[in-house]
Amino acid sequence: MSRSRSDRSDPIVSQDVGAPEPAERVADSVTVSLSELAYERILAMLFGRELPAGAFVSQNDLVKLVGVPVAPLRDALRVLQTEGLLTIHPRSGIRFMKADFEFARNTYQFRSILERPAVRVFAETATHELLDAMIERHQRSIAELESTGFTPAIAPEIGAIDAALHFEIIGSLGNVLVGSTYRRVHNYLQLIRLDRTLTTPIVLRTLREHLVLLEACKARDADAAEAALQTHFSNALQRTLGIF
């Protein structure tokens, strides 16, 4: 699969030293696609609580649950283990990660390292059209929350707003390595949030903290944007731990 291949240094094989036949290349492509499918399905099942965090599952059970053959499943599991989301116990089974305080603290610390320089670039380069659209989207959700409260119907939009903001910030660096690393961090955040109960006050605080950051970016104030981001992360970690 594409993620696992990035971790390997496959040699370039010339045609005169035994390059794969076309049929072999097609078979390899199918394996890659199934590995990618297995990766995505495992994440979806984990974040959708079909695979409980901390669960211990046999490889045979995962083959049935995920619906792919053993070989591509193993490829996906190796990538997920590298990303820290599970541990493979040979001849025993697979243990899925369950977030604890230390994991949450480390994730937010790493997130801060990645996003603080990025938000300064974002504050200086994001177009006013993008910032206005994001501010308006936040304001619509705030109005809905104040009117009806936090409901399952609005939950997907809240998640999408949060992801859109932070991926736009990271994307402003234009660095594919940072972007790839941040996708991993986003998975960690989803794992952390599995044990978190969202309420209307919590979601409103989050959106309002976003607005402070966005307004600082609109004013082209990189210092204020970085400070707002750091405050947001500090508060988010406390909310994750149930402090407020």
- Number of domain modules: 2
Would you tell me which CATH topology of the largest domain applies?
A: Four Helix Bundle (Hemerythrin (Met), subunit A)
Main-sheet strand order equals 1-3-2
Instruction: Please give the CATH class of the largest domain.
Output: Mainly Alpha
Which segments are poorly predicted (pLDDT under 50) over 5 or more consecutive residues?
A: 2-31
Number of helical segments with 4 or more residues: 10
Percent of residues in β-strands: under 5%
Radius of gyration: 21 Å
Shape: globular
Mean pLDDT, all residues? 86
**For the record, what is the CATH homologous superfamily label of the largest domain?**
GntR ligand-binding domain-like
What would you call the structural class? mainly alpha
**What summary fits the major beta sheet?**
3 strands, antiparallel
| CATH architecture annotation of the largest domain | Up-down Bundle
**Helix-residue proportion:** 55-70%
Tally of extended strands? 3
Question: How widely separated are the two ends?
Answer: 41 Å
The run of helices and strands is: HHEHHEEHHHHHH
